[in-house]
Amino acid sequence: MSIVVTGATGHLGRLVIESLLAKGVPAAEIVGLGRQVDRIADLGITVRQVSYDDRDALTAAFTGADKVLFISGSEVGRRIPQHTNVVEAAKAAGVGLIVYTSAPKADRTDMKLAAEHLATERLLAASGLPHVILRNGWYIENYSVAQALAHGLFGAAGDGRISAATRADFAEAAASVLAGEGHAGKVYELGGEPFTMAQLAEVISRESGQPVTYTDLSPEKYIEVLVGAGLPQPYAEILADSDRAASGGALEVPRADLENLLGRPVTPLAAAIRAAIH
Length: 278
What we know:
By secondary structure, the protein is of the alpha/beta class. The protein has a domain at 3-139 and 166-191 and 253-266: NAD(P)-binding Rossmann-like Domain (Rossmann fold, 3-Layer(aba) Sandwich), CATH 3.40.50. Helix content is 44%, strand content 14%. The protein is built from eleven helices and nine strands. The protein has helices at residues 11-22, 55-62, 79-93, 114-127, 145-151, 167-179, 197-208, 219-228, 233-247, 256-262, 269-277; strands spanning 3-5, 30-34, 46-49, 67-70, 97-102, 131-136, 153-155, 187-190, 214-216. A seven-stranded parallel β-sheet has the order 3-2-1-4-5-6-8, sandwiched between helices. A two-stranded parallel ribbon has the order 7-9. The N and C termini lie far apart (39 Å).
C-alpha cells in the first residue's frame, strides 16, 4: 500500500504522518509532499518537494498511490486553481482513494471560508474518483493561549458554540481513514467539545490561574482590531466573517464522527489548554 500526504510539511501533515507510523504503516509506504521538506526529513518516509501550482509534478508524485490525503491549501483566494490541479493530477494518476480536508457544514453554511472547500468537494464529485470528505472543525490551536493571557480574548462569535478539537485529534482521525477501509463516499463532520468564547476564557483562567476575559465585538470592529494587530485586511475579514457565522452555530457539530474515527473520546478542552500553558 502506498499513501501520499500532501501539505505534509505543515503542522497537520506532519502529525498525520506520525499517526500513520504509530498505527504501524511502514515508513516505506508513506510519501510526504510539500514545499519545506526539511521539516519532515527526520520521519524516515519518502519526501518530495511539490507545489499545488505544479500539476505535472503532482501527477508524477501521485502515480502508483493507493490513497492520497489532500490537505487543503493555505492560500485563501488561490485554492480553487490549486485544488483543481490536485484533483486533475489524482485523476490522471489513477489514485485509488482521495481524502480531502474540508470545512464544517461546507454544503450548507454561508461562511465565506467554506466557499472554496465546497467548490473542491464538487470538483471531487465530478472527477469520479473514490473520495472521503473530512470536514475538519476549528483547531483549538487557532486560539493563542499566550496572547489570551497577555491581552485577553477578542472576537465576534457572540454566544455561538465552537466544536474545536486539537490538531492532533484531527490528524489521528485522518490517519484512521487512510489506514482503514470502507470510508469511500463518506462525509465526516468533525468537531470536539463545544464551547463559547466566554467559556474558553473561563477555561484558560482556571488552568492558568490568571484572569482572562472575552470581549465580544461587532464583525466590523473585530476587523479593525485584527488589522491593527498587523493582519492583512482580507485575512482579517475572513476571520471576522467566520466569527459572525459561528455566532449563528456554523462551527458547532456533534463530536460523534470524530470520536468514532478516533475510537476514543476527543481530547478535553481543559487538557488542551493545560498542555498549551505548560
